[in-house]
Specification:
The complex is a heterotrimer. By secondary structure, chain A is an all-alpha fold. Chain A contains 14 helices and no strands. In chain A, 66% of the residues lie in helices and 0% in strands. Among the domains of chain B are: 180 residues, Four Helix Bundle (Hemerythrin (Met), subunit A), CATH 1.20.120; 112 residues, no CATH class; 99 residues, no CATH class. Chain B is globular, with a radius of gyration of 27 Å. The chains are: A mainly alpha, B alpha+beta, C alpha/beta. At the A-B interface, helix 1, helix 5 and helix 6 of A face helix 12, helix 14, helix 15, helix 16 and helix 17 of B.
């Protein structure tokens, strides 16, 4: 058997076998499982990098059920994936699309291969000279040249490390639980403050918020809304002295001004004075109630005199109180 | 006490590393002998002490150490308590440093046998890398900090001062449940590190050679054995990782293109290219520039991989928690890459000198193609892994890059590599006589196609499986034919018996035949993967005790649910019996494992058999009357994958036994031998 | 050739530095965090039955109100922490054009009902079941708690990932009432079902 004949026979045999093989493979019944193939392209959002087709987690199974339903409805692969993209963004895809920012992922490997082949071909055409592999003479000068090189590399490394440290805690700690005392509350609505107070009613600093909210209501004349908050502050074991006193005073004045309840008001003022006997506001308002509500001018006069005796009293208040005192002494009625 | 021992060990090792660097540089520059041995001893002693202290703390439940307090529990059984030493970040650095010290010791022993500048320079570089890792331990990743403020199960505040007032918790939370589930936790990380860290050795020799201005294959020759050892361990480590994932994760998956898995694949690909390309330089003095670039890239990729795992910049199942170690690793990566490549540039004239490639159709040509394919492969894995990160840094778009992307590119590349694997070894050096390659590959081609046809007719017509078997059998046939050709020639020359001649041929060129064995292993891996990926069945069923299900020829009967409480965990599962054709095959017990307060881990159970594996997983916990949802999977012929991996590693080990060929031919005599 | 190699070396060094700077810029950010693509879009419609069963509630019915959609479950620690804040916010704003809709995520209705028994409900809120997680998928939920804010015109204008508190909820609602779009805010971690 001649070499040429044997070669031809071998080649023909190879070609025939290959052809038969390819035919067998191409005509094999392929299980077209669209649901599986779509599922392979979607990342399970609650797992670490698994596809929803492979992950046993509940969320993955639910998403596969959704995919199954859409496939049965006759939706295209792209439409189904777009639906999930709409909700989750591109982060949920395992297969980067061949467009937009991920186009480079499709191009780069091919480019790498082409460049590599190009380099090899170019290298063959520009062969290096057979240079001497060792050059012992300038060894010392070479060694000296290493130092600046190392320094340069080191400098870059240091820059990167420092940059990294600075950038590390860039995203500051979460807002988390509200810093009740420190917040600037001007922008916060009444409803928000109500919600915050309700959600944090055990918080030791909530009384400050309550008082602030209650003051808002009080200023607006909404005694009804202010009342429960003042009450809570007055009865709170966490409240500071000033806060409690303020609350009691307001409660007292609302009782008198809003409901005309003299005894309750006087009681509340007394409680306030029990905490802070020097409270000018408490004494003044108590005096008002005594004068206007209980006709006890003498007591009222005494209180006002005590107030005027306070050296830290503001001048404007002094005039006002003096006027009231004169009115009481002269037997006038209260305004 | 242990904290003191460990801290002292770290510092001693750091000092040893420093001494190694200074003395190594002195000897390399001025050829003055210095006590490098002493420095290496100090380094190794310190590293061993540190690891010993850590392991002792774990074995004796010493919770005064923050590391033990935060990661260990007295209920953790052996060997997981020892494995806790590398289960968390700081401990993994101790392991890395220990392995590095070990390799440094081996490099020193080599140096001691033939002391010269190159060896000293290499030791200096190893010392430099050691300074970095021990420096990490002493500063940002200190495993020997003592706990000064305990909380219920762990430590709230710690101090690096070993004499600080200790407030140790009574117990710790124990390691992550996923890391207590399988004995591989004790094996996979050390093996993988033996691979990773080993790549420091050829890198050190390369940098040493460049720094000294010494070109030529000497640095390759010196480091070749270490490279083989490291490569073998890296291959084994990746294989074990895949097997572990397969046994433990619930759908028979062994590779998910997870960023950390990619981080181990990239150095492996480039190291494989380096191994091959190094042969060309040792033999013909060519591809010098390639080899430097490849070895620097291999080492840099190991550092990049470590960085990705520990920096918190990429989400992965493997991620350690974020810490200050990220910037440090990144800085070291920059130092390595920039320093090495600047050095490379300044030595460009040295590096560029090499003989001319005479013909592409030559062994050198096939190695060049091999370099190209493997480099492109590594490049693809690199950009796939890091692109989401890069894109998010510049824009606020998030993209996902996962399995479909990698498979689309890796699969064709792998088949191309298989093809080159078949043609390469039969292509002669320098230039091929026309027709030689055809003569050597025409019969194997037919055998391969015949095998493919047989598969298509008898087993499956899936295109990938058929292609992998066709190509695989082709490759194995070419190497068998080559072997027979050489044995016949030898018998004709010496008249030996066949077995003797066979043995002589193989051991006479162990490097080559070890490589061929590895190629055969890779063929088996390819076939195993194609079966597992394309020919498998999956089903699901809700079963109550007593129910039976038929699946792929098996009959699976649900016997009963069960609950067990070995120390440290609670196991809740279902017992099922499997029969086939009326014959009892085995009992399977998929389950859920709960460790202390931590959430449960699904644990599948696998029934192995030559035809493939049957894989059962519980989707949820058995209900009140025992009913449970069960997942069924088959992985046909998957054992071929694991066996192939072992064969690949064996090939690497065989290559090490060889007497290395010393000659470097630069003359013009055309050689037509293998 | 020599020059080619030289430039190769410099080029790689340069690329390495650039690459490292890009990596460094990612420190401190959460790689798993995704910007919700729903912000500024029309909110996905849902039509779900309450946990106890009965007539379903659809998003269309609530148009004109600010709708706060919160995904929760009893096994979620942060959800438990924020529950009071949600309830009090619902109560505070209930009569003021704000409706809270709490949707159970990956949990069977009996478990959710049991949980709400102890945690408490607001009369101004709806508590709905989401069979098959369809609504959670439509809203792109990665974990819980996640809270979405839908303005009076039906557009998603805000999202809180992680545990919210009364001040954040209130401030967000205040901002929406002023016509602003608060956007996405991350307050902490989200959780997955423990047996995943």
């Amino acid at each position: 058997m001649s070499e040429r004949f044997r070669n031809t026979l071998t080649v023909s045999l190879i070609v025939v076998m290959a052809a038969v093989l390819v035919t067998l493979v191409v005509t094999s019944p392929m299980r077209e499982d669209r649901v599986q193939s779509i599922g392979d392209r979607i990342k399970c959002p609650v797992c670490q990098g698994e596809s929803i087709a492979n992950s046993p987690s509940q969320m993955a199974r639910d998403m596969m059920a959704l995919v199954e339903e859409r496939v049965a409805d006759g939706q295209s692969d792209e439409a189904i994936i777009d639906e999930l993209l709409f909700s989750y963004s591109g982060a949920v895809l395992l297969d980067p699309p061949a467009r937009g920012p991920t186009l480079i992922l499709w191009i780069a490997p091919l480019a790498g291969l082409v460049i590599g082949v190009g380099v090899i071909l170019w290298w063959r055409r520009h062969p290096p000279g057979l240079g001497s592999p060792e050059d012992p003479a300038p060894q010392r000068s070479r060694a000296r040249k290493l130092a600046p090189l190392l320094a340069l590399a080191g400098a870059f490394a240091v820059i990167v490390v420092v940059a990294g440290f600075f950038l590390q805690d860039r995203e500051g700690p979460a807002t988390g639980v509200a810093n009740l005392a420190g917040e600037d509350l001007d922008d916060v609505s009444n409803e928000t403050m109500e919600a915050v107070i309700a959600a944090n009613s055990d918080h030791p600093q909530v009384d400050g918020m309550r008082l602030a909210l209650a003051e808002r209501y009080y200023e607006a004349g909404d005694f009804r809304s202010a009342f429960p908050h003042y009450l809570a502050v007055a009865g709170s074991s966490n409240a500071g002295e000033t806060e409690a006193v303020t609350a009691l005073i307001r409660l007292g004045w609302m009782a008198w001004e809003g409901n005309g309840e003299v005894a309750t008001a006087l009681n509340l003022f007394d409680e306030a004075l029990a905490i802070d006997a020097e409270s000018d506001t408490a004494r003044y308002l108590k005096a008002q109630v005594l004068w206007c509500g209980a006709e006890q001018r003498d007591e009222a006069e005494g209180l006002l005199e005590d107030v005027l005796a306070d050296p830290e009293l503001a001048d404007e208040s002094r005039d006002l109180i003096q006027a009231d005192l004169d009115a009481i002494r002269s037997g006038g009625s209260c305004a | 006490m242990l904290s003191l021992l460990g801290s002292a060990g770290m510092l001693v090792a750091l000092i040893g590393a420093g001494l190694l660097v200074t003395r190594g540089i002195t000897t390399a520059r001025s050829d003055r002998p210095t006590n490098l041995g002493g420095a290496a001893q100090v380094l190794s002693a310190g590293a061993v002490a540190a690891m010993a202290a850590l392991v002792a703390a774990l074995l004796t439940d010493d919770f005064s150490l923050v590391y033990t307090a935060n990661h260990h529990s007295s209920l953790t059984p052996f060997p997981f308590d020892v494995a806790t030493a590398w289960a968390a970040l700081e401990g993994s650095i101790v392991l890395w440093a220990l392995v590095l010290a070990g390799y440094t010791w081996f490099v020193f022993r080599r140096y001691r046998r033939s002391p010269d500048r190159l060896g000293a320079a290499a030791l200096a570089v190893m010392g430099g890398v050691a300074i970095f890792f021990f420096g990490l331990m002493v500063t940002v990743a200190n495993p020997f900090e003592t706990c000064v403020q305990a909380i219920e199960a762990g430590c709230a505040q710690s101090s690096p001062w070993p004499f600080a007032a200790v407030d140790a918790p009574a117990n710790g939370p124990g390691p992550n449940p996923l890391l207590q589930n399988h004995f591989m936790m004790a094996v996979h990380p050390p093996v993988l590190y033996l691979g990773y860290v080993g790549m420091t050795v050829p890198f050190a020799y390369a940098i040493g050679a460049l720094s000294l201005g010494v070109a030529g294959p000497e640095w390759l020759r010196r480091s070749h054995r270490s490279t083989l050892v490291a490569w073998s361990f890296l291959t084994l480590g990746i294989l074990l990782g895949g097997w572990w994932a397969y046994e433990v994760l619930s759908w028979g998956g062994y590779w998910a293109w997870d960023p950390v898995e990619n981080a181990s694949l990239m150095p492996w690909l480039v190291a494989t290219a380096f191994l091959h390309s190094g042969i060309v330089q040792q033999r013909r003095g060519m591809l010098q520039a390639w080899n430097f670039v490849l070895v620097i890239s291999t080492f840099a990729l190991t550092i990049l991989g470590t960085f990705l795992t520990r920096s918190g910049t990429i989400n992965s199942v493997h991620s350690f928690t974020q810490s200050a170690i990220g910037p440090a690793l990144l800085g070291f990566l920059v130092l390595t890459l920039v320093g090495s490549f600047l050095l490379f540039s300044t030595r460009a004239d040295l590096v560029s000198s090499s003989p001319r490639l005479e013909s592409y159709v030559s062994r050198e040509g096939t190695f060049l193609i091999n370099n190209l394919l493997l480099s492109v492969y590594a490049f693809i894995v690199l950009i796939g892994t890091t692109y989401p990160l890069i894109l998010e840094a510049f824009t606020r778009t998030q993209v996902g890059v996962g399995e479909p992307f990698f498979n689309r590119l890796a699969v064709p590349l792998s088949f191309l590599l298989l093809l080159v694997m078949g043609f390469g070894p039969v292509t002669p050096w320098r230039i091929s006589e026309p027709g030689l390659i055809w003569r050597r590959t025409r019969n194997p081609a037919m055998i391969g196609l015949a095998a493919g046809l047989l598969t298509a007719l008898a087993v499956t017509r899936n295109g990938w499986v058929v292609l992998s078997i066709t190509l695989g059998v082709f490759v194995v046939s070419t190497l068998v034919a080559l072997l027979l050709e050489q044995v016949r020639r030898r018998i004709a020359k010496t008249g030996e018996t066949f077995p003797d001649a066979l043995r002589r041929v193989v051991t006479g060129d162990g490097a080559f035949w070890g490589g061929q064995l590895s190629h055969a292993g890779v063929v088996l891996i390819a076939i195993g993967i194609s079966f597992a990926a394309n020919v498998g069945a999956h089903d699901q069923a809700q079963m109550a005790p007593g129910d039976s299900k038929t699946f792929e020829g098996y009959t699976i009967t649900y016997e009963s649910p069960f609950q067990r409480t070995p120390p440290g965990r609670t196991i809740v599962g279902a017992r099922l019996t499997v029969t086939r054709g009326g014959q009892f095959i085995g009992t399977v017990e998929p389950s859920w494992n709960f460790f202390g307060e931590q959430s449960g881990v699904g644990t599948p159970d696998v029934l192995h058999s030559p035809g493939g594996d049957l894989y059962l997983t519980l989707e949820d916990l058995p209900g009140s009357s025992g009913e449970v949802s069960v997942l069924f999977d088959t992985s046909p012929m998957i054992w071929i994958l694991w066996f192939g991996g072992l064969v690949t590693v064996a090939g690497g080990l065989l290559a090490m036994r060889a007497r290395r060929r010393e000659r470097v031919t630069t003359d013009d005599r055309p050689t037509v031998d293998v | 050739m020599r020059n080619g190699l030289r430039w190769l070396g410099y080029g790689v060094a340069l690329v390495a530095v650039g690459f490292a700077v890009v990596l460094a810029s990612r420190f401190g950010t959460d790689p798993g965090l995704v910007d919700s693509p729903l912000l500024g879009q029309v909110a996905p419609v849902f039509d779900l039955a309450p946990l106890e069963g009965g007539e379903s509630v659809s998003l269309d019915e609530l148009e004109g109100d600010i709708v706060v959609v919160n995904f929760f479950a009893s096994w979620c620690l942060q959800c438990r922490n924020e529950h009071d804040a949600l309830t009090s916010t619902a109560n505070a704003f209930g009569d003021d054009g704000v409706t809270l809709v709490q949707i159970a995520y990956q949990e069977s209705p009996p478990n959710s009902i049991d949980y709400l028994q102890t945690a408490g409900r607001s009369e101004h809120a709806y508590y709905l079941a989401d069979p098959g997680s369809r609504t959670a998928i439509a809203y792109g939920v990665f974990g819980i708690p996640e809270t979405f804010f839908i303005d009076e015109d039906g557009l998603v204008v805000g999202k809180i990932i992680g545990e919210s508190d009364a001040l954040t909820l209130g401030a967000t609602i205040d901002a929406i009432k002023r016509g602003e779009s608060p956007g996405q805010s991350v307050t902490g971690d989200t959780q997955q079902r423990p047996d995943q």
